[in-house]
Structures are given as structure tokens and as C-alpha cells.
Design a protein that fits this description.
With 227 residues, the protein is an alpha/beta fold. It has a six-stranded mixed β-sheet. A five-stranded mixed β-sheet has the order 7-8-9-10-11, with no helix packed on it. The structure holds zinc ion (2 copies).
């Protein structure tokens, strides 16, 4: 698996036999950067067969339409987030705007990151579904940050892609940032549910990669919620 940090947000390339799968698509205008990573693995754009979207935010779906055109990959997302991904409904504004969100939105507008081209989702995913990708990629519905947020468990590698269901800034796992989280109580419930899942390593939409004993870091985060 290649962890591929496009600036600000992480995306992940998973080798799937002769093909590749991508978890999240980064900000807008990042398609060529991601395809350069595909080429660095000795693969062509057509080898990228699956693009899994953890949730509808523009830093995770921004380059989806462009990548879809270049690769023909099947796009996967949860039914509850599909209307925003496909442009049928606008995404909600920041739940609790603050100085940080106003600054990031101003930078985002200036750089064209807020103009996300809609993209079609070919495969709506459901909680508990095991996708036949890389030996089995289990879908865990982890709502709260957005209603249709999903985390993905690569069972053969005991690796969790948490998306934005949890953050790992400075190596410490915690709930997602409140400012962009639609339902914080539900996001906390999802964090508790993830702490009950069996995995060793964890990747996040933002922040670092925990290689070992990641579930213990999730359990510590749940303990802090209870304090
Ligand atoms: Zn997000
Ligand atoms: Zn994000």
C-alpha cells in the first residue's frame, strides 16, 4: 500500500493484483499528481480500477471527476453522501464556523479548491459490505462527520482507513474537528464503534499513519471522551 500525501489531505493507493484501488481523491486539481504516483508504480491510468470515497467533503472528492475520466474507475461511496458527490445537493457549510474555518475557506476559494466538479458514483456501499478488492475491503458506516461517512478495513493487512471519522494530528487519535463535523454526538459514537473493531494499523484523512497497536490508540481516545 502506498500512502500518498497530496498537500493537506492523504490519499492511499492499494495494490489489487494487476490493478490498483485509491482511497479518496484529494483536493481539486490533484489528478495529475495522483496519476504520477500510479505511473511511479509502473502502472497506467486504466490500472486504477476502483476509487473509494470515505465522505463527500471537497478535500476527499476534489479530483474524483477528473480521475474518473482518465481511468474509467468504478467509484464507491455511501448512499447518504452520494447526492453531494454527484452535485444533486450542495454540501452543508461548516457546522461551527470559526477563525480557522474562515481562513481555510478563504484560501480554498482563492486556490479554486471549493469548486468541485460533480462525479458519478457507480457503486453505493452499505455497512458491513465486503468489497472484492485486495482480498476483501470491509465497509464500516461511521456517520457523524458526514451522514454517509465510511471507514474501510483492509482485512488481509489488518489496516483501517479511518477517513475523517477520527483524526491523528501529532500522533494522538481523537474525534474529527468539530467545525466540519455535521453531528458531533454521532461522530463520537462512530469513534467508539471503531475502537471495538479488530485492526493493527490505521491511516487517516489528515495526520499520521499508525503502524502497530492502532486500536489501543482508538481505545485511549474513547477513554478521553469519557473523562
Ligand atoms: Zn471531512
Ligand atoms: Zn478531510
Amino acid at each position: 500500500m502506498q500512502v500518498f500525501g497530496v498537500p493537506y489531505v492523504n490519499t492511499f493507493l492499494i495494490e489489487d493484483g494487476p490493478g490498483l484501488a485509491l482511497v479518496d481523491s484529494g483536493l481539486p486539481k490533484r489528478a495529475e499528481l495522483l496519476l504520477a504516483a500510479v505511473a511511479a508504480l509502473g502502472r497506467t491510468p486504466k490500472d486504477l480500477r476502483h476509487i473509494l470515497i470515505t465522505h463527500h467533503h471537497e478535500d476527499h472528492t476534489g479530483s474524483l471527476a477528473a480521475l474518473g475520466r482518465r481511468t474509467g474507475a468504478t467509484v464507491y461511496a455511501h448512499a447518504l453522501d452520494i447526492p453531494v458527490v454527484q452535485g444533486d445537493r450542495p454540501g452543508p457549510p461548516a457546522s461551527r464556523p470559526n477563525a480557522f474555518s474562515r481562513l481555510t475557506e478563504r484560501i480554498g476559494r482563492r486556490m479554486g479548491f471549493t469548486e468541485v466538479e460533480p462525479a458519478m458514483v457507480g457503486h453505493p456501499v452499505a455497512d458491513g459490505e465486503v468489497l472484492p478488492i485486495a482480498g476483501g475491503l470491509r465497509v464500516l458506516h461511521t456517520p457523524g462527520h458526514t451522514p454517509g461517512h465510511v471507514s474501510l478495513l483492509l482485512e488481509s493487512r489488518r489496516l483501517l482507513f479511518a477517513g475523517d471519522a477520527a483524526g491523528a494530528m501529532f500522533g494522538r487519535v481523537g474525534p474529527p474537528l468539530g467545525v466540519y463535523t455535521e453531528d458531533m454526538a454521532e461522530a463520537r459514537r462512530s469513534l467508539r464503534a471503531l475502537a471495538e473493531v479488530d485492526f493493527d494499523a490505521a491511516c487517516f484523512g489528515h495526520g499520521g499513519f499508525i503502524r502497530a497497536d492502532a486500536v489501543a490508540a482508538f481505545r485511549r481516545a474513547v477513554e478521553r471522551l469519557d473523562q
